[in-house]
Amino acid sequence: MISIHLSDEELTAAAAGERSPRTAGHLEICPQCWEQMSIYRGRLASLKQDVCYSGGRSAIDWGRQSRSIQQRILEAQIRKTAGRNVGFVLATSALAVILVIFLVLNFRSTPLTPTTPTVAAISDAALISDIEARLDQDLPEALQPAGLLVGEMGGIDGQHGNHNTSHARTRTQQ
Amino acid sequence: MNMLQAAAPAGAQAEAESPFADFDEFIRLYQQRVYRLVLAQTSEPDLAEELTQECFIRAFQKQKGFRGDCQVFTWLARIAINLVRDHFRNRRFALWRKLIRFDASEPEQSQAEQVPDPASTPEEHLLRRERLERVSQRIQRLTTPQREALLLSAVEGMSIEEISRATNRRPGTVKSHLHRAMMNLRNWREGEQQ
Fold it and tell me: In chain A, how many domains are there?
């Protein structure tokens, strides 16, 4: 007398070929479970038949697919090789650019000869003539020391005749 | 020497024991099974062909990753299943891809690919179509894990252990999915008979 039958899960596993010793032993002695398992197995077989039939193709079709696969694999390999080459070219270019940038920066950072600061260029002659023009005006008492200073400068740069004149003039005023 | 032996690196030729040593033969050996597996999951012959090709390209590229700890087809089925999963995951972006692809040569190419096989009669073609629809109606009711477990078991005759490796799920989970798939099929069949 068989009191406990196999569960549906055990039966489906058995139909799929998975049989534990207990399941196998039970199936040998229990016709009900065997029948149920056979039904499941029949469903699986029916499904297999349908799938195989619907997935069936002629030899020409399989040959075409096989060639397509081979072709695509070759193309993928070519792409991979080309990709590697492109990668190499890109890497070399990037390296070259980095090198150029480094060289430019390095060139800039080398100490250069100090350049004389450029001052707004006013010619000496223009400056002196301006001073002279100012000195020609009536010199206020507060600016007399400046007049002296101009006189001294005129003494240093003796080559300018105007200076001498202005110097003399300053002294005269004093 | 065949096309892919010529293209393969020299080191690959030395591995005579490798199942990939003659890749053309490898393709011939497994393409029908892979196509069948993908077709049953997608129910679209053109898509199944595309994914089958992609599967072999990946297999060629990743052949060094095959450690030999399972059967070659289990490893190949795993690639195919992942491709199908990826495809359905990315399907929502299909519209955008179609909009982006403005290649004028594409329609001609797809038309050329749709030329019916001269070796099969139109009646046969139609019968296959009908049978595929019937399978599709049954299969599409199942969840993805149930479908994968059922197809690998029923069509490929894989054991629970092999399905577990191919689908990257635990054997107990596979067993449960297979059981539920069978129950869903039974319910659907009973509903159909009523």
Answer: 3
